[in-house]
Structure formats: structure tokens, C-alpha cells
């Protein structure tokens, strides 16, 4: 069966750890020599495009950037027709889309792996970079407390899944109306007080208060999130040597202050670079990690040509 990566729960804990291992290896393994990567972007992005494109090049593939206007999901062609066409040219489709349903429709007909580069529901590639950064920072992750402060959005959802899979404690502090539903994510601790959430935490994470597509809510969100800014006073409640993460871009002076994002505790630039390394790890895991020099062959053997079995990973 063709494997797809739509969110972190498409990976077992062992597979997640293996991707992190592969993310740290040399850039010189040409596991995808001669293969093509379709990069479909309904939403623009600086980090996602550059990270994915360079990761593909580093494993020997040829990435092609395709804008939403060029394919016109639901306007020029159906999602299914676009997907079937791309499968004839490429060995993997990596897509940054407006709706998670688009990815599910792609997977239902795709004969090549589909990777979620962002949807309204999940951002697994960001989460992989996040836990890679945490893995580089701490000797062991099983006692690490991650406190996410802000909107319980797609970034927070995928991060929570990755953190708990690796044994970390995940706390999410959000204003009323912006949190996860109770019981939505197992093992995630929900707070309405950011100070309580970050107390003795090893990592504080935040994201913008208003994401793309929510611009009409900007002023209301600024009012609702006023007490949820990550600033120097909030960071004083964390554990010693706690770090700060942000998926970027940051609205300085809103969800985070300059004193935090530019501080010695900040790992945001390392985290941003890790977007590329994590993407490389995913591609190596999908396309013959034997070529990565370990000889283990633990990655999925993919029938990634037209005619192979397809469908969502069960």
C-alpha cells in the first residue's frame, strides 16, 4: 500500500524516531536520484517552500513548485483529476492546502505518497522539525514538558501528537473559545492560565494569534489573546535553561516580544533550519533509507508508480 503522511498519527513512535535519526545524517545520500517531487502550494510559504525544495535536492530529487492558480483545484479541474495527472510525472506529491479534505481526496486516488506540507487541520512537517529541535537540545525527551501558549491550531495539534508519542508532557494554554475540545487529544493538558502552563516547563512554544484566512478576526483576536503573550515575565516561570520555539513568521510585539525571540533561550532559527533536515528525513524514510548508509531497510517499501495500490493509511 502507498504510504501517505497527513499528520503525525500516520507514524508509529518507532517510525517517528527513525525519521528524526535520518534527519541528522549527511546531505549527500542520493536516495531519490532521478525522481520528481511535485510541490503544490495553494498557500504561499517561505520556510515550507525553501525547506522542502532543498531537502528534495539533497536526496537527489527534482522538485517542481506548482502554485494553486496553475492547477485550480475545483475550478480548472477536480482534485482527483489533478492528482492522477501529477502521479504520471512525479514520485511524491507534497501539498500545502487550504482544506485538509483536499489531501484526503488526493490520497484516495494517488498512486504515489502524499505529504501534508500544511492544512487547516495539521502541520506534521513543522512538528517533525520541532521535535528534532527538542531532541538536539535535551539528552532525553521522556521527562520534558512543552508548554504551547496561544491558539490551539493546526501547528499545536501536530506538535501535541508528536510530543506525546515521544513521551513528553504537552500543555496547551489558550483563551476561552480557542482551545482544543476536552478529550480531543489524549494526554494533552489544557490550561486557561498561561503562567500555570509554563511553570517549570522546559520549552515554551507559540504561534501567531491570527493565521492566514482569519484576517477578519484580527482585532478580536488581539483582544482575546492579550494575556497570552510570551514575554520575559512569562518566561521567568519556566524551568532553568528553558528554550523558546516559534514556527514563524512571528508578529513581534503580539504573541512574542523581542526580548524573548532574540534571547539566548530562543531556538527559532535552529528550528527553522530543521524544517529542511526533517523534510530530508521524511524523504529518506519513504524512498529507500538503505541508501542513507545504515543498511537497516526499516523504511516503507513503496510501490510509487501508477497502478500501485492507493488509499489513506489505515
Label this structure with key terms.
314 residues; 36% helix; alpha/beta; 12 helices; single chain; 14% strand; four-stranded parallel beta sheet; disordered C terminus
N-C termini distance = 10 Å
Count of DSSP strands:
9
Strand order of the largest sheet: 7-6-5-8-9
Question: With helices defined by DSSP (H or I, 4 residues minimum), what is the helix count?
Answer: 12
Low-confidence runs of at least 5 consecutive residues: 290-299, 301-314
Strand composition percent: 5-15%
Radius of gyration: 19 Å
- Following the backbone from N to C, one meets helices and strands in this order, namely HEHEHHEHEHEHEEHEHHEHH
Q: Describe the global form.
A: globular
Supply the helix-strand structural class. Answer: alpha/beta
Let me know the largest β-sheet: 5 strands, parallel
In helices, the fraction of residues equals 25-40%
Mean pLDDT score, rounded? Answer: 91
Topology (SSEs and partners):
Layout: H1 13-23, E1 36-41, H2 46-58, E2 62-67, H3 68-71, H4 79-87, E3 92-96, H5 100-109, E4 114-118, H6 124-137, E5 145-149, H7 154-165, E6 169-173, E7 188-191, H8 194-198, E8 203-206, H9 218-224, H10 232-235, E9 243-246, H11 258-261, H12 268-286
Parallel strand pairs: 1-2, 1-3, 3-4, 5-6, 5-8, 6-7, 8-9
Helix pairs in contact: 1-6, 1-12, 2-12, 4-5, 6-7, 6-12
